[in-house]
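Annex B. Sample input.
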Amino acid sequence: MNGVTHSYGNARAVDDVTLEVKAGELVALLGPSGCGKTTLLRIVAGFIRQSAGQVVIGDRAIDDLPPNMREVGIVFQNYALFPHMTVAENIAYGLVARGVNKADQRARVAEMLATVRMEGFADRKPRQLSGGQQQRIALARALAIQPRILLLDEPFAALDKNLRLDMQIEIKRLQQQFGLTAILVTHDQEEAMSIADRIAVMNRGKIEQLGSPIAIYDEPATPFVNSFIGSSNILDGVVEDGRIRLSVGATLPCSLQNLPQGRPVQVSIRPEQLMLVREAAPDRFPVTLTLSLPIGGQLIHDVAAADGTTIKVATARHPGAVSSLSGTWHCALTPEAKPSVFPLPPT
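Annex B, continued. Sample output.
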């Protein structure tokens, strides 16, 4: 898509978005409600005609084509299965609309049922299926027409956590098996991080950063991306002699070049980039432990710096272990830590 823009009255929902999705790639449009991601997906599907810009699939502009001519399959958040049709009839719906003969319809339906591991369910109605089973049938229906692009509109939102993970794995398996080109819309960062090849983080109708999940997490380009992806400790600081003096009392190397002396900055440090140590040092600051929570395989320590700043520190938790920390501690960066630095307007 090139320079795609769309407005609802005076409100601009999508603002000059250019995005190339490579063949066989799954790109996630990730962002909060109202950021424009669903509008962008509906423009690609043909449900909305954009105010400006162009949508291209392969080497052909598709802006003037109706949805059923775009070679696009879509899986909706609420599945949108036809309740009066059987599973087989739902899967065959797009094939019937395209005039595929009945023998080929039956063969394709059987193939899709096997693909999503739902053999034996052909004669059931949607009301006789669980949420996860309905999701699989919706996916089979979208794949039956052999789309050039698969669009996934918050497809896991209605599923419980364990089933959501199973379906994420299933979609990733099918994407790799068939070399599917797909666009996923989600507000769930874990979902995007787990299955996307690249993530486009959207905010106020624009793409703020596009990159791999690892790059988005480790090297956020803007404060918004940093705050939306993962958890971070945001510390105030100021540039002094090529280093950053933090308000909590430590000094760190400055990762940004050419910042002038006295420039205020914010430093973002992920909880797992910090560790608690006994010894004091110029690049460490004293903290008081207030709380430790065992969360899965991690211990999350809530600590307070001398100026009252609350900081989270994540450490690995060994099976059966609980926190027994006491006494005086200092926060230090882990050896591999690379904090993100965001310059603030000069004072």
